[in-house]
Design brief:
The chain is an alpha/beta fold. It is built from 36 helices and 14 strands. It is 63% helix and 7% strand.
Amino acid sequence: MPPTDRSLAEGRAVLDWLARARGTVGRAPLALKVVAVIAAILLLPAVFPVLLLAGLAYAPIALITERRTALASVSVAIWGWLVVTLAAGGMSSGLMVLFALSLAVAAAAHQGVLGRCYVPCRTTAWALLWSMPAGGLALRLWPGQPYIGVAVALLLACLVLGWRLAKSWQEVRGYGRGQVRATALAAPHAEAARSGRLLAEGAEQRRSANLNPVPGRGVRTAERHVPDISVGEAMAELDSMIGLAAVKEQVRSIAASIEAARRRALAGYQTEKPMRHFVFIGPSGTGKTAVARVVAKIFYAFGLLETPAVTEAHRADLIGEYLGATAIKTNELIDSALGGVLFIDEAYGLVNEGDGQTDRFGQEAVQALLKRAEDDRESLVIILAGYDKQMEDFLATNPGLGSRFATRVKFPGYSPAELYSLAESTMEHRGDRLDPDGRPALWRMFEDVGRRRSGDELGNGRFVRSLVEKAGQARDVRVMSGEAEPNSDDLVTIRSADLQRAYTELTARLRGYGDTPTLESALAELDELIGLEPVKRQVREIAAQLRVARLRDQQGLASQPPARHFVFTGPPGTGKTTVARILGRIFAALGLLARPAVVEAHRADLVGEHLGATAIKTNKLVDSALGGVLFVDEAYSLYNEGYSGGDAFGAEATATLLKRAEDDRDRLVVVLAGYTQDMDRFLRTNPGLASRFNVRVAFPSYTPDDLSRIAVMIAQQAGDTFHPEALPVLNQVFSHACAEGMIDELGNGRFARSLFERACACRDLRVAHLGDAATASVLTTITAADLRAAYDELAGG
């Protein structure tokens, strides 16, 4: 705990003791008081030598240890008087005047800002060191004119005191109107009564400041309650928060830099007021607002702010209804926050350049905010908060943002253990109790959140609070719907079933969250695919590499980062999209993705109507795929050689996609797919493509047997069958297509589906005239004639 807190506590303890002593004396009978005064007068000549020697011995100790008591200053004054006596060569009438002068100097050293900025006994020593020897020497030179010695001593003492007083005023002006209070709180070994008096003076100064209007800003709010907060209390509140180790360390360093600046100012060095503005970046629910309140209390405890109040705001609180009104609204908001902290959450919303259009309202708010951040930096701390990437983009929109908001505090997401601790703390605060069976269930839920890396998307601490609240609601429904009368324990006990119901409800909004694949089920789905043996072998190798990398990480062993982005090459209809879905399930099963969802896209989904809009459109598409797989089919179309001067739109989309593939590699898998030769050409257009998409999976064309099996499987799924005589025809059709080199052009597996659907149409045309006489077998059987007719139509088309 800092010395400020210890000195304040000691001061309050001694003040209480002095108050009790004064009360005891006040309640004593008048006769006893008179007897005590007479006894003190009679004993004074006897004890005076002892008191004098004790004072002389105490003076060096007081100077070294920076004692602020009146006794310390009087002891130094006695030393000064002895020095002038020795300089004068004996006692004289002028020496008695100089003795009174030395006591007057000691009293002056304790007054006002001089006594608050400097140790009074040291001020007394400096003044007497210059004045008393000169005064004593003047008395010795002109013994018949003692007023000369007194005048010399008085002049030099006034000069020294004036010099110290001028320095005190300069430091107070440079360090802010609250510095006096900070000095009193932070000075080590502060004298008890003085600590209490300065505390009262600081509160009175703040009350007066809150009642006075700020020049040019209008009248502030009427008198507000000003709490007494120490730095130690603010830091203790920070330490009580769960997790956030890096944030706590950074806030401690901020407090240390403020204390160092204060000490430099007291030592006489030129020091700027250590005010600063902050950027809090990190996912939602990680305590940014709570830490902002602690920062406000720290600056307030050091006397840099008038109040520890935090004014919270969003875009709507700064933006007006028309141009010009925004600046007025922003300035009014800042006026209301002066003296404290202005916390703007989701600050990136101030610049909303959707579809490439400039947000003039947001820019006006930013300009007004930047101007006031500089003009009022002595009396205001502004904190901009939001998600990591969005805040980086926002700060890059205006050079002034990066320079004026240079201190960044990064808030990490909570780990499963920290989420569990938060849940326990929330339940304890609510008065809830967790059933013993609910503890492992709660841990498994947070472990699942950690495995899926979905804590940020769910909201971290907010998710924990919502989970506990909804589990409590589920508990209430359960106990009140029962037939038996619930007892007191039933009314506060949360069970695993209550938690599971709440967890399912909260995670249902996340796409694909309810689908919890296992590695075994994903690989079994891969094995069920027809053909594609080289692809199956390569996907199994990828799954094995991912699994081993995860095992090495769990045991603290070094491992190469697993591949996250892939290139699927091959003709159409060979199962690339299907394998991408299986790959997503493998990543999700190993906890490398939050969900197995696949977002499919083509060139039109990434490229905008004009330059600038393409990057926005691509970023929105990537955002929608975060936590899963982004599958870009026919990716080579992003580079179109047919455009004169190059494909600027496609290049912009490619560059944006590459950046996001690197920035979000921990929560996104990107698969680029297309024809082999076209993809080779596309990968050569940008060096970053080949380096970031360095795992290629080649999909071969299907064989006639593979296509026959695919057609039979499709028919079974539709409830249809091929006539036994149709199966040889089916093989002949696929063999002919493969032999003629037409199968890739026809679409491989898509051709098998198209052939089946066309054959069904031919069958329906054939049996439609039968009417009610048609049997179920006739209605569901595809004949050889149906297949030949279907192939003639498809091949001829």
